[in-house]
Amino acid sequence: MPSRQKQLLFSVSGLFGFSCALTAAVATGLPFWLNGTVLCRTGAELVNATGPELDKFLGDLSYGLFHGQRVKQCGLGGRPSRFSFFPDLLTTIPAGLHVTIIFFCGVVILFSSVASGFFFFNAFGRPYETLQGPMGLYLWTFICCLSSCLVMILFASEVKLRHLSDQIANFNEINFVFQTYSERYDRCFWLFFLIFLLHALNILLIRLTGIQFPFQETKESDLSGGAADLMY
To answer: CA nearest 202: which of 133, 119, 111, 135?
Structure first.
């Protein structure tokens, strides 16, 4: 492939990596990872609310990785309140899993920036045959791709398996019991899915430049060497 086309592909990949780093940094700090409604089960059971009457006992809940907001509805109007995971909810939520999610978000931000720099370095500089060269491009991009996938899997596990919304809704609540009525992943969660897709696209762009996948050249050289040995 001509060098001009390689520079163009590497530059596009570098822009994708830089965009992923900025997007991951913004999405990590915003409280728009999950949005849902919470039912005041205690109040609904007291009046045997069904159908449209349940709307008087449905409150809103939205949160991210660091803070969020909830509106409790128990038939007498909404009670809005804000909360933060650190340090308020550390004893309530699965802290180890939550910190792991934040850690992998940091990994995505860091290595997306590193990958972007190496893409531009290989586009306009002289690449080394080390981690800054072809192997490095695959390595950093694969780490970003894997980390963004782990962020989505771990957050979904925390929400669904560990019932994170129920724990947040019942935090510091004595008289009422709240239950998650509906929940859906919000824009920040899907931004990490977009980051995953962009890094997967970067892997394809690296291959389009003519760089072989890792270990492919080594395997071919080993086969050729074995064939030469058989000739002698």
So the answer is: 119
| Beta carbons of 164 and 229 less than 8 angstroms apart | no
The CATH number corresponding to 3-213 among 1.20.140, 3.40.630, 1.10.150, 3.20.20 equals 1.20.140
Displacement of CA 135 from its chain's centroid (Å): 24
Domain ranges of the chain: 3-213
Determine which helix (DSSP H) or strand (DSSP E) holds 181, and give its type and residue range. strand 178-185
Q: What is the DSSP string of 63-132?
A: E-SSEEEEEEESSS-EEEEEEETTTTTTTTS-HHHHHHHHHHHHHHHHHHHHHHHHHHHHHHS---SSTT
From residue 104, give the alpha-carbon distance in Å to each of 114, 145, 194.
Answer: 15, 11, 16
User: At 2, is the pLDDT very low, low, confident or very high (cuts 50, 70, 90)?
Assistant: low
Q: What is the pLDDT of residue 56?
A: 87
Task: For residue 2, give the DSSP letter.
Answer: -
CA-based max dimension of the chain: 91
User: Across all residues in the chain, what is the average pLDDT?
Assistant: 86
For the beta carbon of residue 18, count every other beta carbon within 10 angstroms. Answer: 17
Residue 62 has pLDDT above 80, yes or no: yes
